[in-house]
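Worked example 2:
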Amino acid sequence: MTTNSPTVAVLGTGIMGTPMARNLVRAGLAVSVWNRSRAKAEPLAADGARVAGGPAEAVRGAGVVLTMLHDAEAVLDVMRQAAPGLEPGAVWVQSTTAGLDALDDFAAFAAEQRITFVDAPVLGTKAPAEAGALTVLAAGPEAVRSSLAPVFEAIGSRTVWLDGEGAASRLKLVLNSWVLTVTHGTAEALALAKGLGVEAADFLDAVAGGPLDMGYLRAKAGLVLKDALTPPSFATTTAEKDARLIVAAGERAGVRMDVAAAGAERFRRAVAQGHGEEDMAASYFASFTP
């Protein structure tokens, strides 16, 4: 274990939580993990993590608790289960994309439990998580920032500290609105190409190297064209959830998010067609009647 580094409990070992926990272990930190489906957490034992039978067991003795779960409801449910094991003064790093409405509930829970809440969603999907190259967006007290450095350095290549309650979650929603817009744009362009009898390669060649080209277009188009949507780097079900959080945040701010709302509906159709656990590039299939 690295000297003066905290023990970390990771609650949620799915697409993102698993590589994050693995990189924490590789950085020399003591790590305990828990997942609702224990089978998803078990492989981390071979890396050196302690697999706990429940949230309270996982957080016992941990100076840092990192949550990477599906949504705000799951986060609060799991943290309430963890409450009996929480160490007074522990730092709760909340990395789930949970939207804005839950932030007050998170802060209230942290105050009740006498732990410090840090709003810390991450930018990046499966591959950056595996490489320890996430961008950590963090908002929290100055007093805990230095103690979290070993944690954030293990899971990410960059940490952006922001001032103000909820600042990190607000920025994450703005970033995700762009990510999802590009994903749908790629999906619809490929679908239209198919419908019009245009070769996808001709579309990609036409934009190559110009201002309309981008790495994300290439990445998502490749997944569709190579039928490589599983395992997902970002699941369609999760993308639908995030799209709805973006729409809700816009409503709170008096901003109409028409593209995000339409995108959420595309994801819903793709999920209904059976593509929920595939990569969100499966938005492509929402363009066609099954």
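The longest strand covers residues 156-161. The longest helix spans residues 167-196.
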